Amino acid sequence: MKDKIHKTNAARHLDELGIHYELISYEVDEENLSAQHVAQSLGQNLQQVYKTLVLKGDKTGFFVCVIPGADELDLKAAARASGNKSCEMLHVKDLMPVTGYIRGGCSPLGMKKHFPTFVHEDCILWDFIYVSAGKRGLQLKIHPQDLLRAAGAQTAALTA
């Protein structure tokens, strides 16, 4: 018998908007919180497993970038997309106070406060992508356009 999956803030947000998604659980490895591990655990293409990164811009403050798990964020591209001259990754110790989420369980949906959100432009090539549901061991399987709508996000070139 499967354990009941408890809804997260991200899932409740999607429910409120009437957006279809699936909650998919996987085995967490506390030593390896990488998107590669998540993709392997789910048996999915790494290019469809997206990671959520929180940054701070020199002009706009906090913002969120969502990129394919195998890719590296281009900080200059992220700054450009968000209207900043420069930006830096949020330090992991500041993640919980700012977003309400922990490393390895940060969703682009349902944060303490809404931040400008940018999803890598290639997301629209897929029928569905995976993003964190807001806790380790739980992913949202969602259509990219639905994620963009729910997050109030826009697409941008974010990787090198």
How would you explain this protein's 3D organization?
- This protein is an alpha/beta fold.
- It has one domain: YbaK protein (Alpha-Beta Complex), CATH 3.90.960.
- Helix content is 26%, strand content 26%.
- The chain contains five helices and eight strands.
- The strands form two sheets. The protein has a five-stranded mixed β-sheet. It has a three-stranded antiparallel β-sheet with strand order 1-7-6.
- β6 (129-135) and β7 form a beta hairpin.
- The longest helix has 9 residues, at 9-17.
- The chain is globular.
- The mean pLDDT is 94.
Helices, by number, come to: 5
What would the average pLDDT be, to the nearest integer? 94
- CATH arch. level architecture: Alpha-Beta Complex
Enter the CATH topology name.
Answer: YbaK protein
Give me the side-by-side strand order of the main sheet. Answer: 4-2-3-5-8
CATH class: Alpha Beta
Which structural class should the secondary elements be placed in?
alpha/beta
Distance between the termini: 44 Å
Overall geometry comes to globular
Main β-sheet: number of strands, strand sense, barrel status?
5 strands, mixed
Overview in brief:
This protein is α/β, with parallel strands linked by helices and 160 residues long. Helix content is 26%, strand content 26%. It has a single domain, classed as YbaK protein.
